[in-house]
Amino acid sequence: MQLKKLITLSKVTAVAIITSNALYAENYVAVEYLQYDENDNRVSVSAPSLSVSYDIGTDYNLKIDVVNDAVSGASPVWQPDSGSGASSRDNSGDYVYDNESFDESRTAGSIMLTTRLDNRDELYTGIDYSRETDFDSKSASVEYLHYTDASHNRSINVGVAYTYNEILSYDYDDTGSGASQKETGTSINVQAGISQILSDSSALKAELFTIIDDGYLNNPHTTVIRDYSTNKRLDNDKRPDKRLAYGVNLKYNTLITDDLVYKANYRFYTDDWNIDSHTLDNDLYYELNKDITLGAGLRYYTQSEADFYNASKDFFTSQTYASSDERLSSFDALTYKASVDYKITDKLSYNLGAQFYSQSTGLDATFFTTGLKYRY
């Protein structure tokens, strides 16, 4: 649930956005508010955030981001059907796939230090922390960017990130105990890429990545029904404790005219859970005048379903792995995007953004963001 931040357009940023983020860093303080709402009174998220970037001399840049999410609503899960007489997680009645209410809050923060070396190569080191009632996540990352020539027309980058998660899981067995215990999981993300400035108005970046997940990878909030025809009972979502994924990212930016920038991004992802996905992002930014930049975009996403996914209540029996989480299902999605960035003064700007998300499963959602950015 992220809404991409707007960028101010120029010939410099059109090329630099996919070659080096730090080379054109600036000092600023930005505050933003995001509101996310799903249809059918499902999930609603309110998320104010603060971002600070500061250049320490010419060789260092420090960037700090803090966000606090308030999440509420209801997620569809298998649960006892009170109308059928079911009162626990055993076979005393039937089950229904219905919304289960929740309220949650999340506090997250990140720190990124960019170091510019004597040869003007760049080293990025970062740490991230996120905390919820039943989920803690800590991560550290490092990335090195090397320019292959003095003109900075080409660069290569290599990076790795390590994440350690602690998850509170619930035991949905046929006793209805609902006992909880803490589980752990890790993720390693490795990526390598090359960026090339094609001309004074266009640039291309290609990047390969692999993700290695290990440990507790289940969704502790979803359930499946087992042995429905004989001894129906609710059971935990159960997934493999390992996942290997890899893929490619391709980015292309070009200035169509002095006032119009086009950004394209294609991402292919595949893993050993049998999920393949394709993402195609298209964005246009138009400088209406020296103070106002308009944005519009369309994002298409499609994925295949995991080997162990099924939404039926009479499917799972003795299968080792089982999940009814629709995020593991096969679906397509479209996201329509619009934005406006208004330069109030040379130092102060205001942004407003909106997105509409429509998924083939029937899930629709809206994103709205608004914020102020002060450069100093």
Automatic annotation (TrEMBL):
Residues 81-90 have a biased composition (Polar residues). Residues 1-25 form the signal peptide. The keyword Signal applies. Keywords: Signal. Residues 77-100 are annotated as: Disordered. This is DUF3570 domain-containing protein. It comes from uncultured Sulfurovum sp. The lineage of its organism: Bacteria, Pseudomonadati, Campylobacterota, Epsilonproteobacteria, Campylobacterales.
